[in-house]
Design brief:
Layout (H helix, E strand, L loop, with lengths): L12 H15 L6 H8 L3 H7 L3 H27 L5 H9 L6 H15 L2 H21 L3 H19 L9 H14 L13
Helix pairs in contact: 1-2, 1-4, 2-3, 4-5, 4-6, 5-9, 7-8, 8-9
InterPro entries: Homeodomain-like_sf, HTH-type_TetR-like_transc_reg, HTH_TetR, TetR_CgmR_C
Organism: Tianweitania aestuarii
Protein name: TetR/AcrR family transcriptional regulator
Amino acid sequence: MEFSVSRPRVIDQSKILDAAEAVVVREGAARLTLDAVASEAGISKASVIYDFKTKQALIKAVIERRFSEEEAKFDAATEKLGAVADARILGRIAATSDSPADDAQAVALHLCSALAQDAELRCMLQQSYDREIKMIEAQSPNARMGRLAFLALEGLRSLEFLGIYSWPEPTRSRILKEIEELVAGNPHSQSAEENGG
């Protein structure tokens, strides 16, 4: 008697997600289709459907992956600081020291409309931010300043990711330093720029 052995899947999900991001960056989220992603990845539509049954499931996976990558960056930067007060918010600041890559900005911008229309995705992000804020507050000797620093940092990141505004260097680095000073509760009085320097 002959037994058939099922072939292992050889298509990596990350390849499909990479293709989806490429389509989003080039054509926008509205033009993201399973056919377009299959064509971009050089695979059959059936292979895309095997992992992602719908366009919405694919968009959700792209957003979740991007968000997970950001969280991993924050985790690594926080861990690098060790057991210090305000490690979580200081880790977020350190991880933000590099401006976002152009592809990250493009993906974030195009997927905002999808996020706005998906209550489940918004709920996932809300829960993640809720955990993050609680963690920052719990680690901070001055929870009020930790919250303010978080809001300032997220404001900067949001403006950049949405392509609304980006500060040039060295201004951007100075802003991050000032946010870091907020954490300690003692921001310096005025920068050289404000003093006319």
